[in-house]
Amino acid sequence: MSTPIKDDSRHSTSSSTISSAPFNSIVGEHPNAVTNRFFSYERIEEISNYLRKKIAAAPEVAIICGSGLGGLAELITDKISFPYNEIPYFPSSTVPGHRGNLIFGILNGIYVVCMQGRFHPYEGYTTALCAMPVRVMKMLGAHSLIVTCAAGAINKDYNIGDMMIIKDHLNFSNFAGPRFPPVGHAYDREYVTLMKQVAIKHGHELREGIYSGLGGPCYETIAEIRALRILGGDAVGMSVVHEVTVGAHCGFRILGLALLTNKCLTEYNAAHESLHEEVIRISELKANDMQQLILNFVGVLKENYV
Ligand SMILES: O=P(O)(O)O[C@H]1O[C@H](CO)[C@@H](O)[C@H]1O
Ligand SMILES: Nc1nc2[nH]cnc2c(=O)[nH]1
């Protein structure tokens, strides 16, 4: 199916105020600053209603694709695709490797909603805004959330191209939003077990570890990586934690998957530096493995839970 055309003048007015220009906090307020404020229940409802009118069914599973991992959307059939800048109050995707589409359709027999690209706080958006689509996807009916990301490997035994189930996180990001949501069990233990079984069954090697979520946009210093390693971090990135916090707050069952795209620097005499181009290159190289894992996991969800 083709991309839906905006047919609601109220929403056209809203979205016409949404600029695609990247926010530069140094030069002043983004013209779309209204979207950066707190998202009320009514606002989430308004966005959900806009989408609900145009989709074929209520999604069961929500998926967020990390850097270079948006190819998963190619596996979705009966697609209805909304560029982010056509959805009321959605910000724009500004990071290479994040295509910026919200895609509804069928993945391995389940109706899903897939974010082909995410929002990062370093793009100038508040964490609450970056995580806002999680609330929209929940309101549309999804019960499970799969977050994927590219991340740097901190654990000495983990290598470039490894896939890692996120069993927990260290959150070094700030946040504004509902207060004191518990996140001790944010990552669903049953889903972790299920994903491990899926990986074994389909011959994928899977690591497990703790994701450290930092604000970015710079990669880490050597001192920071050494500190994160002491704290128990196995991987590091600039996303996930805000989505998982909000996902836990609104009752999602959550699975997190990281693709390790680079080894983090731990020695001052190391020759290489991390590069986003390299992150995307490795993500795209290994994306097929990640896609197969998710496809099979979703199939198991369908058999067991839906
Ligand atoms: O977490 P995703 O969106 O996959 O992106 C990761 O890749 C970028 C750095 O190369 C950062 O945005 C980091 O968070
Ligand atoms: N912060 C951070 N994010 C990443 N995303 C992919 N690799 C990295 C990394 O090394 N550090």
Ligands: 1-O-phosphono-alpha-D-ribofuranose, guanine
According to CATH, the fold-level topology is Rossmann fold
Which radius of gyration do the C-alpha atoms yield?
Answer: 18 Å
State mean pLDDT (0 to 100 scale).
87
The CATH class: Alpha Beta
| Count of DSSP H/I helices | 7
Number of domains: 1
Identify low-pLDDT runs.
1-32
CATH superfamily: Nucleoside phosphorylase domain
According to DSSP, the number of beta strands is 9
Sketch the major β-sheet: 5 strands, mixed, barrel
* Structural class by secondary-structure content: alpha/beta
Beta strand %:
15-25%
How far is it from the N-terminal to the C-terminal residue, by CA? 25 Å
| Shape, principal axes of CA atoms | globular
Strand order of the largest sheet: 5-8-7-6-9
The CATH architecture classification is 3-Layer(aba) Sandwich
Helix percent reads: 25-40%
Write up this protein.
31% of the residues lie in helices and 21% in strands. The protein is an alpha/beta fold. Strands 5-8-7-6-9 form a five-stranded mixed β-barrel. β3 and β4 form a beta hairpin. α2 crosses α3. The site of guanine has 15 residues, from β5, β8 and β9. Keywords: Glycosyltransferase, Transferase. Its EC number is 2.4.2.1.
Write the layout of secondary structure elements.
Blueprint (H helix, E strand, L loop, with lengths): L8 H8 L24 H12 L8 E4 L12 E7 L17 E7 L2 E7 L10 H13 L4 E10 L9 E9 L17 H13 L5 E7 L8 H10 L3 E3 L3 H9 L3 E11 L12 H29 L2
Parallel strand pairs: 1-4, 1-5, 5-9, 6-7, 7-8
Antiparallel strand pairs: 2-3, 3-4, 5-8, 6-9
Helix pairs in contact: 2-3, 3-6, 4-7
The site of 1-O-phosphono-alpha-D-ribofuranose has 13 residues, from strand 5 and helix 7.
